[in-house]
Design a protein that fits this description.
15 helices; alpha+beta; Alpha-Beta Plaits; 484 residues; 8-stranded mixed sheet; 3-stranded antiparallel sheet
């Protein structure tokens, strides 16, 4: 039995009990007693006998109504309806027998019983056949046993035509009703499944939105978007990735924190974090962590670019230039010019989510390249950006930057290795650095610089995909397209 069949079976029980309740309570007793007026007109000599016969529907209906609520399954309910309908048919057949004329129009009473019961009560086909025979069978048996005259036989034949019509019509109505009920159940079940499915989708999307909202407060936007696009997962193992690490540190921050009040420190650090984040996100650089008076970031993961080293240097220069332009604010709150130093290094690192399944601290890069960027940052002078030879070699021939050799250094954590260090300068005014970071007009997230299909730099939103072409006509590139 299919689910629809089972639902229909339970629905039939409710329908049968409801219909039988209406018939026994509001229809049969008034109709049977009202037709006593016909008895007065057609068979006045039998009026009292027929009144007693008709009155039998009262205890029959009351008994049926009393028994009806106790039935919990469909089969016993059908038996109860069958015996009730058979009782109604027996009363009418009794009156036909007492009249003694099988051509009497009283047979129409059987038709009313048939139409009222066979059409509306949700029988199965077995009980439909049994009820039809219980209603009309005694009429034909009595007619056959009474040896009717030819005239009566002719009238019985006419009556039979209508009786067969009653049965056929009720059979068709019963079949049509069952088909409609079945389709209605299928539609309701499909709707129920769709509602359940939509409910699950809403729950999943709500959980996803809450999860992403929580993640957005913990991870850089690139990481959150990569999680949303299933490019990375919280359970994913750490992977090796070629990145460009950036360490930025505020010069003499410890000394300043001890000398100025808390509110000034909060304003300066908040502005530092805001301006740094906007510049980094503009170039689609992942922010690993803020370190109070500094930050760690890296490019090329989880979003890969061919020009990931250039992006790291551009962002670092813009951060430095931003602080230089805002010296009035910093001198008012920091009580002296705010200067930063930057260390940049490129190479392989282990990148991913560190921690267990319950606690994820950050999307972090770990490896010698991180340590090298940190040491170069510590070795840099105020407003200086230091890089190792690997970065200089990777950008050979790039007209946007120039490099000054500042010496060979042995850095803590690198043993006796001699690190050739260079200071980065801007060799030409970049059209990209002249553009401030934009907030997406659709979702208010910081937009990043990317290239469109024509190789033109555009601003794109990581969150909603909105793009803005704010670049000058010369903003073409052949080597800075997003890596495949």
């Amino acid at each position: 039995m299919t689910l629809i069949d089972d639902l229909r079976r339970r629905e039939k029980l409710r329908e049968l009990k409801a219909i039988l309740g209406v018939i026994t309570h509001k229809m049969v007793i008034p109709l049977f007693m009202a037709f006593w007026l016909c008895d007065l007109l057609y068979v006045p000599e039998l009026k009292w006998e027929f009144l007693i016969a008709r009155s039998l529907v009262i205890p029959l209906s009351l008994l049926t109504r009393w028994r009806l609520p106790k039935l919990q399954t469909f089969a016993p309910a059908q038996w109860l309806a069958f015996f009730y309908i058979m009782g109604l048919g027996a009363i009418i057949n009794f009156m036909i027998i007492r009249i003694g004329d099988w051509s009497t129009p009283y047979y129409a009473g059987l038709g009313l019983v048939a139409i009222g019961s066979l059409s509306f009560v949700p029988w199965n086909w077995k009980f439909f056949s049994m009820s039809s025979m219980a209603i009309f069978g005694p009429y034909y048996i009595g007619a056959a046993m009474s040896e009717p005259s030819p005239e009566q036989m002719q009238q019985i034949g006419i009556n039979s035509f209508f009786i067969v019509s009653f049965v056929v019509i009720t059979l068709f109505l019963r079949y049509l009703t069952e088909q409609l009920r079945h389709k209605e159940l299928e539609s309701r079940q499909n709707l129920r499944q769709e509602i359940i499915s939509r409910g699950k989708i809403i729950e999943e999307k709500t959980a996803e939105a809450l999860k992403l909202s929580e993640l957005s407060r913990q991870f850089s936007p690139q990481v959150v978007e990569a999680i949303r696009q299933n490019q990375v997962t919280l359970s994913e193992k750490v992977h090796r990735s070629n990145i460009c690490a950036i360490f930025i540190d505020i010069v003499n921050s410890t000394e300043r924190v001890t000398r100025i009040d808390k509110d000034r420190v909060d304003r300066v650090i908040s502005r530092f974090m805001q301006d740094s984040a906007r510049a980094l996100l503009k170039y689609d650089i992942t922010i690993d962590k803020f370190l109070g008076d500094g930050l760690l970031a890296f490019s090329n993961d989880p979003v890969a670019y061919d020009d990931y080293i250039e992006r790291a240097i551009r962002a670092s220069m813009e951060i430095r230039e931003k602080f230089a332009r805002d010296q009035e604010f910093y001198e008012r709150n920091w009580l002296r010019p705010l200067e930063v130093r930057v260390g940049i290094a490129s190479g392989f690192a282990n990148v991913g989510f560190y921690g267990n399944e319950k606690y994820y601290h950050s999307y972090t890069a770990i490896g010698p390249v991180i340590n090298l960027a940190s040491r170069l940052c510590s070795a840099a002078k105020p407003s200086q950006i230091l890089v190792p030879y690997d970065v200089v070699d990777a950008l050979e021939g790039c007209p946007e930057f120039s490099f000054d050799f500042v010496g060979k250094r042995t850095l803590k954590g690198f043993g006796d290795d001699v690190i050739q260090t260079f200071e980065v300068h801007s060799a030409s005014e970049s059209h990209l650095s002249s553009l401030d970071a934009l907030d997406c007009p659709s979702c208010n997230h910081v937009m990043h610089i990317d290239t469109n299909n024509d190789g033109i730099f555009v601003f794109k939103c990581r969150s909603c995909g909105h793009s803005i072409d704010k670049m000058p006509p010369s903003a073409y590139t052949n080597d800075s397209k997003k890596a495949a």
